[in-house]
Amino acid sequence: MKKILLSEDQLPDRWYNILPDLPEPLGPFLHPATLEPMGPADLAPLFPMAIIMQEVSADRWIDIPDPVRDIYRMWRPTPLYRADRLEKALDTPARIFFKYEGVSPAGSHKPNTAVPQAYYNAAEGIRRLATETGAGQWGSALAFAGALFDVEVFVYMVRISYDQKPYRRALMETWGAQVAASPTDRTNFGRSVLQRDPTSPGSLGIAISEAVEEAATREDTHYSLGSVVNHVLLHQTVIGLEAVKQMEIAEAYPDVVIGCVGGGSNYAGLAYPFVAERLSGRHPRTRFVAAEPAACPTLTRGVYAYDFGDTAGMGPVVPMHTLGHNFVPDPIHAGGLRYHGDAPSLCTLVRLGIVEPRAYMQNECFAEAVRFARTEGFLPGPEPAHALRAVAEEAQAAKEAGEARTILVNLSGHGHFDMSAYDAYFAGRLEDVALPQERIDSALAELPPVPALTS
């Protein structure tokens, strides 16, 4: 069976919340000014109350509102494919399956959380959202969702991606969003960055700071973000919940679950329902591999500590693997993976040895993306290209062991807006960045004064 489809009536009606199943509780989010634990009232200027309650919920299952499910049906359930042609190209006994999220209107997994976020804001009377975007996938998704719920969207797009991916900007504008290249002169923090470095390529940390500043200083505006925090990962679990059903139809169960990681949303979306099976003891030997860029190696070379989620230090201080909130990654084409930290729940799983992180160079990832496109036909985005590199490693390991292992990977988005990156790859212009440790050490020297966590 090449393609495994679910019917619309098999669309999940609940999201899975991993927090009550984690082997240990997460540390509290801290207020950026006082470094004291934050409560719902501290988050109210930024988020609707429904989102705030999801963020701290101890319920394992949270109902998906009917208006959200109705919109999900525009593209969900998404297909699961058997990558048999890739298996032959890799000469592996492994069985490779990929969950394809590129069928959404925005071309990635991001609408899975953009739609409920727009819904909950609109339900509480909020008509304007400010956000950031790296590669443009999140900004595109929120622009799409905002159009459906009549919510105005303003996007701070990391400057290097704004320049690299002009058609992502055009897509956002087509859905009615306004887009600015971050850092901008619209905010106090943006102006301070430009004063220090007028040619700054920007970073997700900087763009987040600008969006948070706008939301915090305008009564008509809330903040919306596309990764890292608990409610976003929760919304994304529709991916894995569908995949569990589809793997049952395929009469297979993954030996290893793979995805790319920037902040953690697409990976958690696929992996967390399977992590639940491992934590429960039902499938204790499933392995989980998280692929990140060597140019921004948060999970593999960062420290586990409390840090700001944004460069200006205006957002919550959270426990996570971090390269330091002042770290500005090199301008690689996987813009969605250029973030200094990761989701606290994912970092906990990494620290406990349940999730294995790996870091890869640009060129080896694009090589795997090209091989995938030439065998399976779908053009991967630069972000999931990292996951495909991990798939190739796992396929080789299965070959060397002579075992027909089952590999499941999230192809989280297509690369149709990333042809300049492919053009650079074919022309030999992509650089493989070997990140000097001193750059990390410099950024880590400015962590907030919070007691150290176990590394």
Describe what this molecule looks like in 3D.
The protein is an alpha/beta fold. It has a domain at 66-107 and 231-444: Rossmann fold (3-Layer(aba) Sandwich). The protein has helices at residues 40-43, 49-55, 66-72, 84-90, 111-123, 137-149, 159-164, 166-174, 188-196, 204-217, 230-236, 238-249, 265-280, 298-301, 344-351, 362-376, 382-401, 419-426, 437-444, and strands at 3-4, 14-16, 61-63, 80-82, 95-100, 128-133, 152-158, 178-182, 222-223, 256-260, 287-293, 303-308, 317-322, 355-360, 406-411. Strands 1-4-5-15-10-11-14 form a 7-stranded mixed sheet, sandwiched between helices. Strands 8-7-6-9 form a 4-stranded parallel sheet, sandwiched between helices. Strands 2-3 form a two-stranded antiparallel sheet. Helix 3 (66-72) packs antiparallel against helix 5 (111-123), helix 4 packs across helix 16 (362-376) and helix 11 packs across helix 13. The longest helix has 20 residues, at 382-401. The radius of gyration is 20 Å and the shape is globular.
* Class per helix and strand makeup: alpha/beta
Q: Considering DSSP H and I runs of 4 or more, what fraction of the residues is helical?
A: 40-55%
Summarize the main sheet.
7 strands, mixed
CATH names the topology of the domain at 66-107 and 231-444 as Rossmann fold
- Which term fits the overall shape? globular
Radius of gyration: 20 Å
